[in-house]
Design a protein that fits this description.
about 290 residues, alpha/beta, about 20% strand
């Protein structure tokens, strides 16, 4: 593992982390040399140097979005002379043994100069009985190991998107530059998407991601932007419309705070047609 550490960084993005999130970062710092923590929280963590010994901590001053935090972490990693970075949301958890396996496998895959990103397998991917690494069009950022020079080639994560679709935008640009995105089904992780809720209606189980209302805003707005920027990479209009309608149905039937979430989705669409990007705050006050 020591040989691998000389090339790899672990970048963890915080936003109002719980004590468990901080404890996991501290745990990784005991075993890994290059743990970089980028904090988007409104206020910095108290006694951070005592709680996160062995890691580098940067407080961004306010929430600048996941893309800006990842860009800062990647820039820091490159300044340290590192070649690769494991990107983690605070909600993503790896067992140390699995993490070591992820690093070792990725290092062997990166021998191919065209491999830019290696992602762990998910339960969905494992269910199709894939045994060997295979290429995909896109993966979520968290849990992925990226080749840092690829960021220089294709451009950094798009901080104008702020949060949602940042990973898919980056993956599309990688593929347009002929890079390969691999999933390794031999490696798994724990990662929660949203705060899922489910309800049984008329004998049918309905599941919804139950994202915060503000996330619903970014999801709609940014997915529309990706359709505009990369029409050849987008699903059909019928499938996209179906996806939006299913999301609305899940919100109405399963989730709470329905009115605000549906309103946020409408505002997201409106801001797309008004050519607005950036944070919710910036879009409400375009002069900022």
């Amino acid at each position: 593992m020591n040989d691998i550490q000389s090339d790899f960084a672990v970048i963890i993005v915080f936003y109002n982390p719980s004590s468990k999130h901080v404890a996991f970062a501290a745990y990784l710092s005991k075993f890994l040399e290059n743990v970089l923590i980028v904090d988007n929280s409104p206020i910095p963590i108290n006694n951070i140097n005592k709680r996160l010994k062995g890691s580098r901590y940067c407080w961004m001053g306010r929430n600048l979005g996941i893309a800006a935090a990842l860009n800062y972490g990647c820039t820091m990693a490159m300044s340290l002379g590192l070649k690769y970075a494991l990107l983690l949301d605070q909600d993503t958890v790896f067992m140390l043994q699995i993490l070591c396996r992820h690093f070792e496998a990725a290092q062997s895959f990166f021998i191919n100069d065209k491999v830019a990103l290696v992602a762990p397998g998910s339960l969905m991917l494992e269910s199709v009985n894939e045994q060997l690494p295979f290429p995909v069009k896109s993966v979520i950022t968290s849990g992925s190991i990226i080749r840092l020079t690829a960021c220089c080639d294709v451009g950094k994560f798009n901080d104008r998107l702020f949060i949602d679709q940042v990973d898919h935008d980056f993956c599309i640009r990688l593929r347009l530059h002929s890079y390969i995105i691999l999933v390794n089904p031999a490696v798994s992780m724990k990662h929660k998407i949203g705060d899922p809720l489910e309800k049984k209606l008329l004998g049918r189980l309905i599941v919804s991601t139950n994202h915060h209302w503000l996330r619903r805003y970014y999801q709609v707005r940014n997915s529309l932007y990706l359709r505009r920027w990369y029409p050849s990479e987008s699903m059909s209009r019928a499938d996209f419309t179906k996806d939006i309608l299913l999301t609305v149905l899940g919100i109405v039937l399963v989730e709470q705070d329905r009115i605000r979430k549906l309103y946020a989705m409408l505002i997201g669409a409106a801001d797309f047609f008004r050519n607005r990007l950036g944070s919710w705050r910036e879009c409400r006050n375009p002069q900022i």
